[in-house]
């Protein structure tokens, strides 16, 4: 069964190359004819791992091609996911399976609504990769990817292919809890690093702010039916701040590079959920206002 991979950026390339190296059939789905030509000119996809570069010339195609897709790895940003899947929807074969690698929450529901007959498997990953050139990706941090399906407990038959590809993963019956937990960690850390202009470790100078946000986030998680995700949130945020002290958060890096953030799927999603439950979270809501003002000053999208 072919793995079609849409989103040939950091994480998509990392998955595509590892799957292909394991001998599994992979086809890249590129945005338009210009990107396809650029890919061909680059001679393939390059992964840099422990300072060694390996280039693989994987077959590539356009979303507008007509061959059916049975299995799709969707590895674009959350704000691109729905449109990307809408464009591919006519190609999805009966019983198609999608693996959604987006961070945060909100994009998965939007995708699932576009393809009601497909199985959507949600993922939450702590692996780290970045692009240091066109079609060139650096494997920056080992991590783990949780996969799960909120509508079915049984794992897909192909999970062993990830094992073969050396992609560290686990199947969980409660992927939403994992996604909420990661969203809460990202909400407690990332916006503050942007507003204070600091590495994750710099938040050790702002313990009261971190504590207030964690208390509000834990209350929100419980109200949203995610008590496990709320458990010891503040302690874990403290551990992540320490363990990643030297790193800049992903949102900090996006803002510094003038890239659109995934704010609507992280802090924006949390505040919208609070509003739906008529829950007033003054610190979280103030943080969203400040972050949007910060983005507006830099001419970056507010969603
Ligand atoms: P990225 O920006 O590096 O790559 C996304 C790619 O998708 C880009 O190449 C873009 O051109 C492509 N794309 C967008 N719309 C498309 C379309 N319609 N057709 C074809 N291609 C399209 O993003 P990333 O860093 O790999 O992140 C992907 C998701 O994974 C995000 O939600 C991110 O938060 C999450 N994530 C990333 C990392 C990481 O280390 N990079 C770690 C954990 C989670
Ligand atoms: O996931 C992260 C990110 O930077 O996006 C961490 C390191 C957990 C900080 O929230």
UniProtKB/TrEMBL annotation:
Residue ranges of every copy of the Ketopantoate reductase N-terminal domain listed in the record: 3-149
GO biological process, any: pantothenate biosynthetic process
SUPFAM superfamilies in the record: 6-phosphogluconate dehydrogenase C-terminal domain-like, NAD(P)-binding Rossmann-fold domains
UniProt pathway annotation: Cofactor biosynthesis; (R)-pantothenate biosynthesis; (R)-pantoate from 3-methyl-2-oxobutanoate: step 2/2
Entries under InterPro entries matching the protein: 6-PGluconate_DH-like_C_sf, 6PGD_dom2, ApbA, Ketopantoate_reductase, KPA_reductase, KPR_N, NAD(P)-bd_dom_sf
GO molecular function, one term: NADP binding
GO cellular component: cytoplasm
Full protein name: 2-dehydropantoate 2-reductase
Organism lineage string: Bacteria, Pseudomonadati, Pseudomonadota, Gammaproteobacteria, Pseudomonadales
